[in-house]
Write a structure and sequence with these properties.
alpha/beta; Rossmann fold; seven-stranded mixed sheet; 5 helices
């Protein structure tokens, strides 16, 4: 974990439960927003993901992600680490033609960042067909919104934490 940064790391049991629900990650392109230490993306690479884009706006977090990747001798052809805000990077990722099969999001609690990011992801063309978004958020943070292409797939509670999964579907008729 980065020193001097207030981060709420995902509990090991929650991360394990999430990966148990995901099953096969072979060949998947992954985006980790609010990456922190990069634990979700690094675990994804270890489970066969073909490429991970790590995004965090904190310099210390970016430095820690790179150090963690280096310490595990993970070749740079498997990842990109970007220092940017989760909301501002989405249009850039779309413009570059990026498509992701899986997105992890663990935003700060109580700031409605999960909802804001989901709205932006729903409006950007960065999702592969049938892609999945995994959102870790505080149990009282309401993120339900009228999405065009995202459908709630499942939700699990772990103490004060909710893990909510959305699946991309075909765009709904208006």
């Amino acid at each position: 974990m980065p020193k001097g940064v207030e981060i709420r790391p995902t509990q090991d049991k929650v991360r394990q439960a999430i990966f148990n629900m995901l099953a096969d990650l072979n060949g998947k392109r992954v985006l980790e927003l609010f990456a922190g230490s990069g634990a979700f993306g690094i675990e994804s690479i270890s489970r066969g993901a073909s490429y991970v884009t790590f995004v965090d706006n904190n310099f210390r977090c970016v430095k820690t992600i790179k150090a963690n990747l280096d310490s595990l001798s993970i070749h740079s052809r498997y990842y990109d680490v970007i220092r940017a805000s989760a909301l501002s990077i989405l249009p850039s990722l779309e413009k570059e033609g990026n498509k992701f099969d899986l997105i992890f999001m663990d935003p700060p609690y109580h700031l409605e960042m999960a909802k804001k990011c989901l709205i932006n992801i729903d409006s950007c063309d960065i999702l592969s067909p049938n892609s999945l978004i995994v959102v870790e958020h505080f149990k009282k943070d309401v993120i339900v919104a009228g999405f065009k292409t995202l459908v709630l797939e499942k939700e699990r509670r772990y103490g004060d934490t909710l893990v909510t999964m959305y699946r991309k579907t075909a765009e709904k008729a208006v």
